[in-house]
Write a structure and sequence with these properties.
The complex is a heterodimer of chains A (278) and B (908). With 278 residues, chain A is of the alpha+beta class. Helix content of chain A is 27%, strand content 25%. Chain A has helices at 10-19, 71-76, 84-90, 96-101, 104-110, 117-123, 141-144, 221-227, 258-277; strands at 4-5, 23-25, 44-46, 56-59, 62-66, 127-132, 135-140, 145-147, 150-151, 158-165, 172-178, 189-197, 203-211, 218-219. The chains are: A alpha+beta (278), B alpha+beta (908).
Chain lengths: 278, 908
């Protein structure tokens, strides 16, 4: 008979992880769709009742987003404009029902190539906080997700928080999603961008990430390098060249062809930049 | 035990903490108003409030609801009084089939609690997580916007029901969650059935010894296989083409075909995986492409169908060679479409039980009498030994014209002599049941110097998948309609339905005509352009009018309202076209365009008798009952038929109760398809009402102009000569308790078609023209439909609100067909990979009702169900062409396809 643990504190949850394999359930929005027809006979660790895993706080020079913070909480939190991209992504993840239950940590651990949260968090230079009994470590998000449905999460670990370094006062973010319908749609491609400007409106820091066009959403370092130091003004989108996106590796699927994704991503990146310049 | 509050009541529930909240609400607490459409958070039908926030109850482990306050649809009506939101849903016609309604209501409740006067945009955002396949969303938005105005419902008085936008007679059950759909009820102690399905597209197989399986699963009562079917192990729509087995007998023709049925307790059969079955498979190379199936020497799917051709259709008239040789201008087009899924939010479900030597089957169906005959054949019984009790039906659109659960549960209940239930999962429903036919069409058309259509040459190949289903209907219907609603000099239109090893294609709103309309409307646009004519005026000049011959040589003597539709659109057409062209003077990635599409559609079966019989009874206490065998699948026939019978009898519509569908209690009204219920059953209802009226007038010796008033057991009859009473209390009642009955039967007059397809295949045709205004993002290949204007000749709108509901819903499905819906067998068997339009995809829709009376129809009415969607895709594709110069001929116009076409046409 399968077990179901729903601890009230993190220590108990980590002890459960240490005790042996179990399926971690938070918002359930990826868990149940994978079990249509019949639930599995499996041991479940429900981390939804652990207060320290939920909520967004400013801690020192970072923001700490608890792993079980829901997308609705992200969307309505009082956060600086650097988070605007993440907030826009939050409103694109399923319908409101999904946003009310689905968690930011779950979106990362589920590691879908089309996870809307990942590019937005890459653009914020996020790290993940991974805890085991007696140990907590941080890993850049880009190093945490290894591939389609693969992460570095150890069997004894829990992803406990997402850590976002504080950006400067000028930092602004945005997010553009491309799908074949308006609501409830898995992205064909999406782009998140965050730009911090310095003196004279020049680009001091820029991070751009593209999702659904590679097994894991990717930053575009070539483009970021090309943008650094330029003035953030209308027309900035013209900076984007197809070879800036050469690192992407899109596939053909029912939603679109690889060639289309590559090209659409380029257009979306340019539009995201224009949005930030507007 | 897990404690929570549900609708204000504290409850404690047992069972596994991982159980879905939706299942607990339904199975433990009996709150069946929370509907399950997908179990995956894709459809939102199970939306409930958890501490005031909307959630999908299928995604919440009951453990996470501990201590929470849950509100379901049953909690909306306080002390039996409907919430104003529920009343608004009824008043605005926001519920059609009703399966999504509880989810919509709960999502709307969450919004209204924080924003009592929301904007349209806020409504769409808040309800965007709930899918509706019937309404096109517009009336739902209107209902939510007007939820605060506490107006209540009103009913028309005696004699003026026809033409009134009265609320549905069955609406309250839909907004309270009380409607009982296929999966919502069953006999106590019923066993459950789950079909084991083929993972291969084409294979032979052998089922080994089941002893081990039974030993491992004590809750497994029986595994049924082909040899357990007591009668014929085959079914199919046509009496001479029963080609689909109930359970495959050693050979499967598509992935998803049922090979065995597990019967036992619910948890047991759910836990057994298909892979646990001792089945040895020998896969064979499948035929997926119709061209491969047609190739010489291709293996046959069915031994009696040479060349893998199920059937052919043909219409020929006039001298085609001369028409093309003498043409002033020519146009030609090739169109390809894909499988399209019905995506009703209710998966197939039902129950069966043996009652002595009879069997009762309750299931969601569009066609109880055909189900009866099908089940009888499979069980080896006389049809009278089968009783079909249609449940509420959560959307049909043609997909529930074929049996699905019915033969399986009937066989199990018969063999085991125990009640048996079955509910398909969403992936199972999508993998196993019929689709719209993928079409491959080539067509060309010629005009003379006067701009008249002189020649039309059409061929359509339709991929009918592994089994016939309604393939012959598609192959017959398409050539008749292939020219579109125009006068054409010479015609050759041919079709084939081709078997392949894919999901069977069957009936889907329009029976192949929507695919054909994409071709004929592309030709009309192209010819108009070649002649330098306006696309709408060109259509108008060639429009079929009273007295013109159709492609089959039929001359319509009445109700031929296409020209009126086009004329009604003309001002909007001109304004929208110039607005789009003005907008396009500015540079930018967004280009605007406006297109027009026309359609026609024969109401009723093609050249076949399709009668309907309606009965109305008057009980000793004055109760009036309409006994209707017509299944209301959400389109509103229950209401329309009551409106008609009420006016025919001369009493208020509110006086009637309805007995619907049950084959033991109602006469055969034929199937709910072919846009025939308003026209055919409506006429039968009118005759039934008149029959009862005549009997009452005779008893009172009154003239036909008399007024009737029923007051308990007394009918007061008043005419110019005075007032009389008919006393019902002393009369003898029949088995239904009725002392007087009226009956009406109508079979629309048609003729057989000859070898050239000449004749009168339908008694009447519906006509329509629609405009679409679109914005195309040429860089991304995305299309936003911003506005639709739909003019429909419905003969007479018995209920304008319901007619509009059909138009909105048809446009939503037409939009999906044009832009996003592509069922890829084996790949898109869920509602997140298969996309149907959401709240955010629907344009503002203006409906214009043209009422060119059809004398055969009830009060002049004819059909609207299928006509609503047929013109939509052509209008949208025409608008894309106007915006960009690109003619999309491969549907759906997904962004990657449109972008490729735009690039090929030179767009940067």
């Amino acid at each position: 008979m399968a077990s179901y643990d729903r601890p009230r504190d993190l220590g108990a949850a980590l002890a459960r992880r240490a005790a042996g394999p179990c399926v971690v359930l938070a918002g359930g929005t990826d868990h149940y769709p994978a079990r249509v027809g019949a639930l599995r006979d499996e041991d479940i660790l429900d981390i939804g009742a652990i207060p320290e895993l939920r909520g967004i706080q400013a801690v020192g020079d970072s923001w700490r987003i608890g792993a079980t913070t829901t997308w609705s909480q992200v969307a309505t939190a009082s956060l600086p404009p650097a988070f605007d991209g993440l907030k826009l992504a939050a409103r694109e993840i399923g319908g409101v029902q999904i946003q009310n239950r689905g968690t930011i940590g779950g979106n990362l651990c589920n590691a879908s190539p089309a996870a809307d949260g990942v590019p937005a968090l890459l653009a914020l230079d996020a790290s993940v906080e991974l805890a085991t009994l007696g140990d907590t470590r941080h890993l850049p998000l880009a190093d945490f997700i290894l591939g389609n449905r693969k992460t570095r999460l150890g069997a004894d670990q829990l992803l406990t928080a997402i850590i976002v370094p504080r950006a400067g006062a000028t930092a602004r973010g945005t997010f553009l999603k491309l799908g074949s319908r308006r609501y409830l749609v898995i992205s064909i491609a999406m782009v998140a961008a965050m730009i911090e400007t310095g003196a004279g409106g020049t680009i001091a820091t820029v991070r751009i990430a593209v999702g659904a066009c590679s097994p894991v959403a990717r930053r575009l370092p070539l483009l970021e390098a090309a943008l650094a130091g330029r003035r953030l003004e209308r027309g900035i989108g013209a900076t984007v060249r197809p070879d800036h996106l050469a690192a992407l590796a899109p596939i053909d699927d029912v939603r679109g062809t690889a060639a289309y994704r590559q090209e659409a991503a380029c257009e979306l990146v340019a539009r995201a930049l224009e949005t930030l310049a507007a | 035990m897990i404690r929570l509050a549900v609708n204000g009541r504290d409850v404690a529930v047992a069972g596994p903490p991982a159980a879905r909240l939706a299942d607990v609400l339904r199975d433990q607490l009996g709150l069946m108003g929370t509907k399950i459409g997908c179990d995956a958070g894709d459809c939102g039908a199970c939306t409930v409030l958890l501490d005031g926030a909307q959630v999908c109850a299928c995604l919440v482990p009951i453990a996470q609801a501990e201590g929470a306050s849950i509100t379901t649809v049953e909690g909306l009506a306080a002390n039996g009084t409907l919430a104003t939101l529920q009343v608004a849903f009824e008043r605005h016609g926001a519920a059609q089939c009703g399966i999504c309604t509880p989810g919509m209501l709960m999502a709307a409740s969450a919004l209204l609690a924080v924003d009592p006067h929301p904007s349209k945009h806020a409504v769409a955002d808040a309800l965007g997580g709930v899918l509706c396949r019937c309404t096109g969303y517009q009336k739902i938005v209107e209902a939510v916007l007007h939820a605060a105005s506490d107006i209540g419902l009103s009913a028309p008085a005696a004699g003026v029901a026809v033409g009134a936008a009265m609320p549905r007679v069955d609406g309250t059950a839909k907004v309270t969650g009380a409607e009982v759909f296929g999966g919502d009820a069953g006999p106590p102690a019923a066993l459950w059935l789950r079909a084991v399905r083929s993972p291969h597209w084409r294979a032979t197989f052998h089922i080994g010894d089941l002893v081990g399986l039974h030993r491992r699963h004590p809750g497994l009562v029986r595994v049924l296989t082909a040899r357990d079917v007591p009668g014929h192990n085959s079914f199919g729509i046509y009496p001479h083409i029963k080609d689909q087995p109930v359970l495959a007998d050693g050979h499967v023709r598509f992935r998803g075909e049922a090979v065995a049925a597990l019967v036992g307790d619910r948890a047991t059969i759910a836990a057994i995986r298909d892979e646990d079955m001792p089945i040895t498979w020998k896969p064979e190379d499948p035929l997926h492409d119709p061209a491969a199936a047609l190739a010489e020497g291709a293996p046959l799917l069915h031994a009696d169908r040479p060349g893998n051709v199920l059937t052919r259709g043909r219409v020929a008239r006039g001298d085609l060679v001369a028409a093309f040789a003498g043409a002033h201008a020519l146009a030609e087009v090739s169109v390809r479409t894909t499988f399209v899924e019905h995506a009703y939010i209710e998966p197939e479900a039902g129950w069966a039980r043996r009652v002595g030597d009879r069997i009762e089957v309750a299931a969601c169906t569009q066609t109880p009498y055909m189900d009866r005959d099908e089940v009888a054949r499979v069980l080896g019984l006389a049809p009278e030994a089968v009783r079909i009790i249609p449940t509420g039906i959560g959307g049909g659109f043609g997909g529930k014209l074929d049996v699905a659960v019915q033969p399986l549960i009937a066989v199990a209940a018969w063999v085991l002599d125990r009640p048996v239930r079955c509910t398909f999962t969403r992936p199972e429903s999508m993998a196993a049941t019929t689709k719209r036919h993928p079409a491959s069409i080539t067509a060309r058309a010629a005009v003379d110097t006067l701009g008249r259509l002189t020649g039309f040459d059409f061929h359509g190949d339709f991929n009918t998948g592994a089994y016939a289903s309604w393939g012959p209907t598609v192959a017959d219907r398409v050539p008749i309609h292939a020219t579109g609603p125009y006068v054409v000099g010479a015609v050759r239109a041919t079709s084939r339905a081709i078997y392949t090893n894919l999901t069977p294609a069957g009936a889907f709103r329009g029976f192949g005509v929507p695919q054909a309309a994409v071709a004929h409307e592309a030709l009309m646009d192209d010819l108009a352009a070649k002649l330098g004519q306006d696309a709408l005026e060109f259509r108008l000049e060639n429009a079929l009018r009273v007295g013109d011959p159709t492609a089959t040589g039929q001359r319509l003597s009445h109700s031929c309202g296409l020209a009126a539709c086009l004329e009604a659109l003309r001002p909007r057409w001109r304004a929208l076209r110039s607005e789009a062209e003005r907008s396009n003077r500015a540079d930018g990635a967004i280009r605007y365009g406006v297109g027009v599409g026309c359609m026609w559609y024969g109401c009723g079966n093609t050249s076949m008798s399709n009668p309907s019989t309606m009965r109305v009874g008057l009980a000793r206490d004055g109760r009036l009952t309409l006994y209707s065998g017509a299944v209301d699948i959400g389109q509103g026939s229950n209401t329309v038929l009551v409106q008609i019978v009420a006016d025919a009898l001369g009493v208020a519509a509110s006086a009637f109760t309805l007995v619907a569908g049950d084959t033991d209690r109602t006469a055969d009204a034929g199937k709910t398809s072919a846009s025939r219920q308003t026209f055919v059953s409506g006429r039968a209802a009118e005759l039934a009402g008149r029959d009862l009226r005549a009997k009452l007038l005779r008893l009172a010796n009154a003239g036909d102009d008399a007024d009737l008033a029923i007051d308990g057991g007394t009918v007061r009859v008043r005419d110019h000569a005075g007032s009389r009473h008919v006393d019902l209390s002393g009369m003898t009642a029949d088995a239904n308790g009725d002392v007087l009955t009226g009956e009406g039967r109508f079979d629309p007059p048609t003729t057989k078609l000859d070898g050239d397809g000449q004749g009168s295949p339908y008694a009447t045709y519906a006509f329509a023209a629609q405009l679409a205004a679109v914005a195309v993002d040429v860089k991304l290949g995305t299309v936003r439909v911003e506005r639709m204007v739909a003019a429909h000749d419905v003969g007479r709108a018995i209920n304008p609100m319901l007619v509009e509901g059909q138009i909105h819903g048809g446009i939503a499905q037409g939009l999906g067909f044009a832009l996003m819906e592509e069922f890829v067998p084996g790949k898109t068997e869920n509602l997140h990979d298969y996309l149907i339009p959401t709240f955010g995809d629907m344009p503002a829709i203006e409906s214009i009702l043209i009422e060119d009376r059809e004398p055969l129809g009830p009060y002049g009415a004819k059909g609207i169900g299928e006509p609503a969607l047929i013109a939509t895709a052509p209008a949208i594709l025409g608008a894309i062409h106007h915006a960009t110069g690109v003619r999309v001929t491969e549907l759906p116009a997904l962004p990657h396809r449109l972008r490729a076409a735009l690039k090929a046409a030179g767009w940067a």
